[in-house]
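Risk register update: the risk of archive-format incompatibility is retired. Evidence:
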Amino acid sequence: MALQVSAQFQPQGQLLLRYELTGKLAQLRIPIPQAPTAVDGLWEHTCFEVFVGVEGDDTYHEFNFSPSGQWAAYGFSGYRQRSAWAASQPPAIRVNQLDGQLRMDAQIATADLPKNTGDFMLQLGLTAVVEQVDGSRSYWALHHPEAQPDFHQRAGFILSLNPYPLE
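Archived output:
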């Protein structure tokens, strides 16, 4: 299996993520299409995730995107400390599965990114959970700061993006 992820800001400020999982997809449990609703526990099966924080701020948001089209969004005031935040709108998710490739585009509204009161970089942790047909899971990330995967560790948010267009 191989996983590639790209992240970029759109002209209106939305964050667009593209996940491409390639390999022997028949060996994976890939959730079937469902109504695009918010659902907890998506990380227990194949799903793609992003953790977004503002440089110098402990708060962050977590977004989970299932190949089913379902999604989840959570706010945190610090390491694994859930806050009352809720997404203002569902992310736009588009999934295509071809022979040997699963591609998902997920777009997050600007209003649902963490508040950035200065001209600070956003720090992203790009991650995925991949479930095999036998129920075992592998945990993918740009960086695992510890021996055991823990996507909430801020040291794993290693992709920095400038949310402000250069003029």
